Amino acid sequence: MTVIDSFPLASGAALPAVGLGLWKIPKPDVAALVQTAVRTGYRHFDAACDYGNEAEAGAGFRAALAAGDCKREDLWITSKLWNTYHRAEHVRPACERSLRDLGLDYLDLYLIHFPIALEYVAPEVRYPPEWIFDPGAAEPKMRPAAVPIAETWRAMEELVTSGLARNIGVCNFGCSLLRDLTSYAKIRPSVLQVELHPYLTQEKLLRFCREERIAVTGFSPLGASSYLQLGMATEDDSVLKQPVVLAAAKRLGKTPAQVVLRWGVQRGTSVVPKTTKPERLAENLAIFDFALSPSEMQAISGLDRHRRFNDPGAFCEAAFHTFFPIYE
After folding, report:
1. Structural element, H or E, at residue 194
2. Which domains does the chain have, with CATH numbers?
3. CA separation for the pair 36, 200 (Å, rounded)
4. Cβ(35)–Cβ(63) under 8 Å?
5. Contacts of 215 (CB under 8 A, 6+ apart)
6. pLDDT the model gives residue 230
7. Catalytic residues
């Protein structure tokens, strides 16, 4: 069995196949969790301005480096440009703020978080800016800004030129936006990060990215579990209870979560599961000593329901009083 624990990027870098997603991890838990993750063997960490915990993650990285648990060059740290910073003049300051909070000189990867441009909110007014322009308004809503992706991308390219980011990419883009972006990009996107799990396999998007040499990272790789506490999914939505997943787990002596994460990596995508439990940290990383059979891979992929849990076309209206579809 060939062990694939990283994926090559067009830039020549290697993206670790499993990372720790920092979304929704409470601030008081982040620093210790990051250091524990490093000691467990994690080298890939997925952060973002919008997660609101980059300063705490930075404390964890500093502690791990000071303790000699790893070297900076061993780590792969991703952050993301928030929607309110899409204008060219805001891109570098946003990146620099994330770097300060994370305690870093450079990011291994900086991503445009959504193909959604919102009006600028100054950091001294609110940070992270979140989605609503003015939470105190009589009718608080998102306030879209007319900023072309081309303008944002040019500023992203300057981050590479200046050494602030080693690689740049995008999140939540589909084939049409990627095709348009690559038509003018001087520095092509290294990575696309999108929601990927057995209920949302996105086969055509993955094939397109393979042909374009764009690596793919799947967020929410276990599906519904990331959205239960948000009221955006129920226990009945869990892919971990599917008979084909349970059968593979029994055959291999692995957990259902390990089977689903292995499915993600084995189909050629990196995964960034989130957990706050040390035992789950080790479990999620222990997926390189087994392989799913072709029939198991096919059966798990056959669970596809085109079920998207993280859809601005649904949650923006429900949570932020603004109808904002991006996938249709």
Report:
1. strand 191-195
2. 9-320 (3.20.20.100)
3. 31
4. yes
5. 7, 8, 9, 10, 15, 190, 191, 192, 209, 270
6. 73
7. 51
Residue labelled with tokens 């959504």: 114
Q: How far apart are CA 281 and CA 38, in angstroms?
A: 10
CA distances from 91 to 80, 152, 166, 248, 278 (A): 10, 7, 15, 45, 35
- pLDDT score for 236: 76
Give Dmax (Cα) for the chain: 60
User: At residue 207, does pLDDT exceed 70?
Assistant: yes
pTM for the model: 0.97
Residue 49 CA from chain centroid, whole number: 12
Nearest to 171 by CA among 224, 209, 130, 226: 209
DSSP 85-103: G-SHHHHHHHHHHHHHHHT
Where do runs of H (alpha helix) occur along 162-226? 175-184, 203-212
pLDDT at 261: 98
Q: Which helix (H) or strand (E) holds 45?
A: strand 44-46
Residues near 243 by Cβ (< 8 Å), separated by ≥ 6?
none
pLDDT tens, position by position, 74-97: 999 999 999 999 999 999 999 999
CB-CB contact of 149 with 181 (8 Å):
yes
